[in-house]
Structure formats: C-alpha cells, structure tokens
Amino acid sequence: MRIRVCLAALAVACGTVSAATALGANGLEPRLTKALTGTSLSLGKTAALAVDMSTGETIYAHNSDVPFAPASNEKIPVSFAALTRLGTGYRFHTEVYGVGRRAGSAWEGDLVLKGFGDPTLSSADIDRLAATIRARGIRSVTGRVLGDESFYDTRRAAAGWKGNFLGGETPPLSALIVDRANGWPALSPPLLAARALRDALARRGVAVAGRPGLAVAPATATTLASDTSDPLAALVKRMNRESDNFYAEMLLKQLPAAEGKPGTSAGGGKIVIATMRGAGIPVAGVRIVDGSGLSSLDRLTAVALVGVLRAGATDPLIARAFLVSLAVTGSSGTLKDRLPALRDVVTGKTGTTNLACTLSGLIGRKIAFAVFENGNPVSPWAARGAQDRFVTILASTTPTG
C-alpha cells in the first residue's frame, strides 16, 4: 500500500497523468456502464474491473469483488500457478520401465509404460520410445506391455461438468494418454497407450508375447526409455491462445502430483488459490474446481482475475511466457477475429459456456481489465458485443503505446 501511494504522489509531482486519472477526468464511468448493457444482459449478473497497470489505481469497477462463473478465464490463474510453481522450462515426461531381467536379446518379464501427465504424448513419441528399446538390442519381450496411470487419480472428468463435456469439450483425463485418447471409450486411456507401445515395438521388430494390460510400475523397475514434452511455456501458449481445455485439466492435476501429492483436480485447485494468495491477490469467493472453466462450480472475481494478470505480467521469472500465451486482437488465437480496429493492441483470454461469457486481458501495457457476464443461459453474442464496446472505449481514451 505504501509503494502504491508513493507512486501516485510521484506521478503528481512530476506532472504525469495516470490512465486512471485520465479516465476519471473524462467522466467515462457512465459510458463504460452503458457499454456493458444490452439486450438480454443484466448488470446484476455482470462484473467488470479496469486497473492502471503501473499504479494499481482503479479506473472502473462494477461488482468487482462478487464471485462469477469464469468460463475459460479459469485458465489464467491455472497458467499463473503452473508457471510460478513448476517454472517456464518444466517438461512432462513418460517412461518405459522393465520389470524382470535382460537375457541376451530378450527381456524376460514385462514392460511398463508409465505416464507422468504429458498432454502432448503422441504416436510419434511412442514410436521413439519403441526405437530406443530396439536400439538397446532387445528383440523380444516374454511378458506384456502394461500401462501405468497412477501418477494421477482415475477420474476422467471434473465435478460440475455436463455429461457431454467428457469426450466433447475435452478428452478423458489420465496421467497416461496418447493422441488425446483416440479410441476411447472402447478402451481406457492407459490401455490404449499400452497397446500403442506394443504395436510400435512390433513395427520395430520387437515381439511381445502377451496382450496389453494395466499395472503400477514397482520402484525396483529398470528404466529402458524416456520421452519429454516441450517446455511448459510452449504448452501454456497453446493452451491459452486456443483455449485448450484438455491441457488446462492436465496442468491442474500436475500441480499437486509434481509435489509428490495425489494428482487430483481438487488438489490442484488448492495450489492455484495458495499461489494467488502468496502473490497478494485477493482470493475471497474464488473457487477452482477444474482447470478449464467448464465446471458450473468454478468461481472467480474480477479483482482476483485482474490481480493475476498484473502479477503474471510483472513477475520477471514468468512475464514473457505468461504474456506470450495470451491471444492478440485481430492477430491470433481466440481473439483473431475480434476487435480488428484494435489489432495487436489487446492481449487477452476469452471464455464462453452457456452460463458465462468472459474477456480479460491487457490494453497495451497500460490497463488490465476483466469483464464477466453470467446468465442461465447467457447470450454470447450480446456479451461479446458488450465486452468489445467496453474495451474499445478504454483503448480510445488512453494511450496504449
């Protein structure tokens, strides 16, 4: 608080004008409120906040501390927590363990394919694992290829999801999943993965005697092959720009699992809130039930979301990865076709379910904002129109260079 007061005093002494002061002087509050109104929209079910990035001064606030359903803006605090706790260079990994012993060119026993939550694991990765085993001189496996998903729990969905979300909005969740579980629900994700490795081994000339199955790798198993994902910064960029629900759910479970705790959505939610609280972000009313924002039980406040945006954008350890992950108006991701008149001016995150339509982000590097519209259902077209009007007014009144 003392720093914020000193910054404000310094601005006055130097004759500079903050974004908040400029907007207040122009009397924009009624214009911004009017921008948020529209057919089928209710101000009682709307929250909005705009804050000066440099001083933290409030430019505009409406229901800013009231909890609302966030839709995919849920991914913003999940990204912040993941980048903060795991680091921008963190990589997921997948292992092939041998249970048994080597006898010449044969592995006498089983191979266990263990997943550690990589949402990007593909058939190409599995083929490389098979190639590594072949390169070790192994030509036959007397046992089976077994899939191990024990790094996470076995819940395929999260609380508060509609029935059609699983398999529609996101693949099933598992610590071991290849090609986003193509072939589910006929077979479980870890069984599909085990079958994929067996088939890849066969293509490489490694015969496996038994059928694919499931198991938990013992601690005494021998590591035979490993695969790693791209760095976390790259995964978060794909997740936020295109609003990938599956990546978000896997990241949430990874947070506790990476700390040696059960890999659950509930455990991940607790870590997200703890990370926010540790950064001085208000968390009253915040509820993180899943990673994607699909859950009807999720709740965020505008003040919490704007707090995350400011914290992520100013933390020197994660700022670049955090900012690059956001979509850009008129240019990329889910904002590619929105606000063309503000091309490359606004970076942000969209979100839409039948209960919520949201937009948050940064206007230049001057203003952080968040707009929530809730309803049962909410009209996405009306909500997006209100959000675009709100952002356009802010951008046209404040220099964003």
Notes on the structure:
The structure is a single chain. By secondary structure, the chain is an alpha/beta fold. It folds into two domains: 2-88 and 234-397, Beta-lactamase (3-Layer(aba) Sandwich), CATH 3.40.710; 93-229, D-tyrosyl-trna(Tyr) Deacylase, Chain: A (3-Layer(bba) Sandwich), CATH 3.50.80. The protein has twelve helices and 14 strands. It has helices at 2-13, 19-25, 29-35, 75-86, 123-135, 189-203, 232-242, 245-257, 265-278, 302-314, 319-324, 380-397, and strands at residues 46-52, 58-62, 93-103, 106-115, 140-141, 145-148, 182-185, 207-208, 213-214, 222-228, 327-328, 346-352, 356-363, 367-374. The strands form two sheets. Strands 3, 4, 5, 6, 8, 9 and 10 form a seven-stranded mixed β-sheet that branches. Helix 3 runs antiparallel to helix 12 (380-397) and helix 4 (75-86) runs antiparallel to helix 7 (232-242). It is elongated, with a radius of gyration of 24 Å.
